[in-house]
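Example 5.3 — ABC transporter ATP-binding protein
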Amino acid sequence: MHQALSIHNLIAGYGQRVLLRNLCFTVSGPAFVAIIGHNGCGKTTLFRALTGQIPYQGQVQVLGRELRAQRRPAASGLLAHLPQRASVEFSIPVRELVVMGRFRHHRFLGGYTAQDYALADAALVQVGAAHLAQQDFMLLSGGEQQLVWLAQLSLQDAQLYLLDEPTQQLDVYYRRRVFALLESWVQAHNKTILCITHDLENLAELPGYLLNLSRPVPALLPLSAATVQTERAFLESEESLHVVKWGDDVMRQGSTCAN
Ligand SMILES: Nc1ncnc2c1ncn2[C@@H]1O[C@H](COP(=O)(O)OP(=O)(O)OP(=O)(O)O)[C@@H](O)[C@H]1O
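Solution (predicted structure tokens):
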């Protein structure tokens, strides 16, 4: 049985600025992993590396397949990515945007079937956005757009989901609802989710793991109220800011993986 995700000695950054230094962690089975850390510590940079937008050193395997060797990981259903600021520059009904999540099952755009649309409608119900189905996506609020993207993403049926602050613009009700939805993707559909978030208060009750990229040597910790409390206290401390401030050459020496 392959590991859901294995990251070994990943090094990434921008030119001289190394933000991820020998990052190592393994997610053995389907799981929710919250990625936290200060602004600018390298969370989005990790996703840029995993999606091939910036080069990296090290090995990344998804279900035993070396990610670097995959030509189009999204098209093959290995990976789906929700960036921090996803935008659409043209008018499109919400339902039409959501059904595009089924693109892997179609050779040409526009060939969606009644079954595809039924799945799109069900996905909108799941995220609590059924009432938006006929509206123009461009005219929705930021939070409403986030819900619609999540509905589209769920139709992609990928093995590994990379979500960059998916609850950022949501109100308290929808934040909780979205985290419950992500939990169901893991439990009911065996997905693995890496979720960048600053929304610590919603994490304590979730099953899964926490990865604090502001730590000098980030490691996966089982999620619990105590873990969230400890990591929050660390992020609020002056000590943790120094890790970032002097990160490039003093505090954040990094270490190589144990094996
Ligand atoms: N193309 C780039 N060239 C140089 N530096 C960059 C580039 N893109 C991002 N950075 C810098 O890398 C650092 C990490 O950025 P990143 O977006 O990974 O942060 P983050 O942890 O996701 O932060 P936030 O919580 O604010 O979203 C930032 O200081 C940013 O200014």
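Remark. The first strand starts at residue 5 and ends at 14.
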